[in-house]
Amino acid sequence: MALYPHQLELLSPARDADIGIEAVNHGADAVYIGGPAFGARATAANDIPDIERLVRHARRFHARVFVTLNTILRDDELEGARRQIIRLHEAGVDALIIQDMGLLELDLPPIQLHASTQTDIRTPEKARFLQDVGLNQIVLARELTLQQIAAIRAATDPARCTIEFFVHGALCVAYSGQCYISHAHTGRSANRGDCSQACRLPYQVVDDKGRFVAHDKHVLSMKDNNQSANIAALVDAGVRSFKIEGRYKDMGYVKNITAHYRLLLDELIEARESGKDPLARASSGRTTFSFTPDPDQNFNREFTDYFVGGRKDDIGAFDSPKNPGQAIGWVTKVHPDSVELETSDPATVLHNGDGLCYYDLQKELVGLQLNRAEPVTGQIGRWRVFPKDAMASLRDLRKGTEVNRNRDVAWVRTLEKKSSDRRIGVWMALVPTAGGLALELTDEDGLTARAVAAVPDEAAQDTARNAEQQQAALGKLGTSIFIARNTDTALTSGRFVPASTLNVLRRDAVAALEAARQAAWVKPQRAPAVEPPVAFPEDTLTYLANVYNQKARDFYAKHGVKVIAAAYESHEEDGEVSLMITKHCVRFSLSLCPKQAKGVTGVQGTIRAEPLTLVNGKEKLTLRFDCKPCEMHVVGRMKTAVKEQRKLELAEQPLQFYRTRPLPKAKGSLA
To answer: Of 75-89, 622-636, 656-670, which gets the smallest average pLDDT?
Structure first.
């Protein structure tokens, strides 16, 4: 089944098991992590024993663990993927995040399947189809508006399929799964987990007459996603799983961003607690933090909420794909070995090892890492800093230059320590039994446990003091995952019980309750597919469908698709094709959109600016604009060197699938 419709799930990334454990400790209801192979982050793989360790910890809070298996697979990889899935199922993993529909044609254990954002879910029809073939949770395209999300929710069943949406982190400029630039230029496929990130490069933008429209701008580089202000609106649109991007990110990022959204979701849950449609967390316990979460402290390219509220003109990080940090002041004096700064806020403290930066005259970001930072004697808010690099290398650094901080060492050190405490509320009652005493525990999920001890019936000398001592001893839950909400000793307050006996009762009862929680966990089950097989929304698939193995072809044929082309990685598209499809529009961002000019006197009808060309060194890409859906296509062809390398690979390990383009079947045939 899916999440219950009233539950909100905070889904955090994990590069490894240790980061995943801290994500749970900082309030995540679920964690997604790469398995040993076949994940869309090729260098973020994890062994099964490590994943099993994460699962054991997550179970304590009834949190879920998902594993990404979201690349497209060759025929010769399918059996390896199937064996890996069996091992992940045995390790207790709750769900797989997948892209390749060929997996649905394999003999898999009953593990829940989720549709990756790589499946490019933009329409109600596609979402409904994926629900009906057995996907319990679907990650929508990041480009959707609130209205489009609501339309998808209306077309699907909340009891069968959960809507998941990215709320924070780096943005892929393409519709996920619809970018082939990396493979075309380098042979490294984004759909195989090895993107070369051509979108973060600087480009010259040239019009059809060879004139420069923009010079050395990162016109395909987006700011980072931040939906902090839209959480309530996303809930109302139907989102129930709130996903943080970042399987390459470090521990500090995951701690901080998880804590940030945990607080936002808890605030919303509490605000609607007594309303018509109350909300609830998707896992157990409450989390407290030893720091104040702040998304600005982590690496970011500044923030955007992208298209959730409609198209905007400030979504790009065109000047630099690096982290510009936060403005803290400006240069007052430049010395041969150091720089003097005045901070905007006199309370700002600089530290040895801080990372500063500034923009040079070409709007390029220049780093300024500090060896040493010293306050200027007698001048509040004035600092003298000694850079790690030679002063001569810091181009265009002069008096009046604004300076940002993009790495605060004090913040980093805060998150290197224990920074959260997650506890499950428990109600305790000490009661007499025929042979002594029993300690009964009931947790916030209604699960119970009991421990007993033989204790002589000896009266206490001071009933009130004795009751206080009993409550204090039982409430010492220390390093356990529980916190006492109430301790009832009314029936035993007049009875003397040695502290050592109370300690044993408490430890045994806590262990029994932990075991009861493990036993009570019901693993999510894979949804059955609708029978007879539902029809796919289209009867023809191009290379954009990323079909790369015979099982995937069989899947789509079973669902009524007549013509199925091979994935781009099969090298059957020889000429120019759309190497990227994106909602981002360079023409719009450069104020060259005909829709923008509509109604402007002297401009209407004069702006075309199509095609535009992107140039980076010897690489050239053509931009074409499809104004009806308001999308941009980045057009190009595969490099000869990539084709030749592919021939060598095929000679060593021939593919059985799509050696030639599959022909359309006879009319009426599904096979």
So the answer is: 656-670
